[in-house]
Design brief:
The chain has five helices and eight strands; from the N terminus they run αββαββαβαβαββ. It has about 180 residues and is of the alpha/beta class. Helix 4 links the parallel strand 5 and strand 6.
C-alpha cells in the first residue's frame, strides 16, 4: 500500500500545534492583541474564535494553563514557511573548489590554474589546492611545498591562507579562503 507523502507532511504540520477541538486542556490563557491575557474555558475561547471566523491555536502547551491565541492558522503557517525560506536564502553556502597539481608542474600550467583559482576566490568560494604525488614522485615533497607556497603568495591579494601546506598520504594540501565576504 503506497501512502501519499503530502498527507504525511500535513499530519506532521498539524502535530506542531493543537487547534480548536484538538486542545485537551479544560482552561486556557487566551492572548488577544491589545488586551491582557485572560483565563477562560476552552469552549468559550473556541466560541470567541468562531465568532471572528479564526482558529484557536495552542502556542505554549507546556505552560500551566496552556497559552492559546486566536489567529488564522493557515496564514500563520504560511508566514512561518516564508520566514524559514528567507533565512535559508540568507545563509551562505560554502563551496570548495579543488585545484590539482603535480610536483613537476610547468609555469604555463601553474599560471592557467592560478587564473582559475583567482576567479573562484572572487566568486566567494574556498580553494583547496593540492599536489598529488604519484609513485616515486613522493621524493619531491619539497618541490610540492614550494609550488603550493608560491601559489598562496600569488593569491595573497584575493585570498587568505586557511591551512598551510600539509602532507596527507600522497597529497600535500593547501586551503585558501576568499577575502571577499
Amino acid at each position: 500500500m503506497r501512502r501519499n507523502p503530502r498527507a504525511f507532511v500535513k499530519r506532521e504540520v498539524e502535530a506542531q500545534h493543537r487547534i480548536n477541538e484538538k486542545i485537551f486542556a479544560t482552561e486556557v490563557r487566551l492572548i488577544t492583541e491589545g488586551q491582557e491575557p485572560q483565563l477562560m474555558s476552552v469552549s468559550k475561547a473556541i466560541e470567541m474564535a468562531e465568532e471572528q471566523e479564526l482558529d484557536l491555536v495552542e502556542i505554549s502547551p507546556n505552560a500551566k494553563p496552556p497559552v492559546c491565541k486566536i489567529m488564522d492558522y493557515k496564514k500563520f503557517l504560511y508566514n512561518q514557511k516564508r520566514k524559514q525560506k528567507e533565512l535559508k536564502a540568507k545563509q551562505s553556502k560554502i563551496v570548495v573548489k579543488e585545484i590539482r597539481f603535480g610536483p613537476n608542474t610547468d609555469d604555463h600550467d601553474f599560471n592557467f590554474k592560478l587564473a582559475h583559482a583567482k576567479k573562484f576566490l572572487e566568486e566567494g568560494s574556498k580553494v583547496k589546492a593540492y599536489v598529488f604525488f604519484r609513485g616515486r614522485t613522493i621524493v619531491f615533497k619539497d618541490r610540492g611545498e614550494i609550488l603550493l607556497l608560491k601559489f598562496a603568495q600569488e593569491l595573497a591579494d584575493v585570498g587568505v591562507v586557511e591551512q598551510l601546506p600539509k602532507l596527507e598520504g600522497k597529497k600535500m594540501i593547501l586551503m585558501i579562503n576568499s577575502k571577499k565576504k
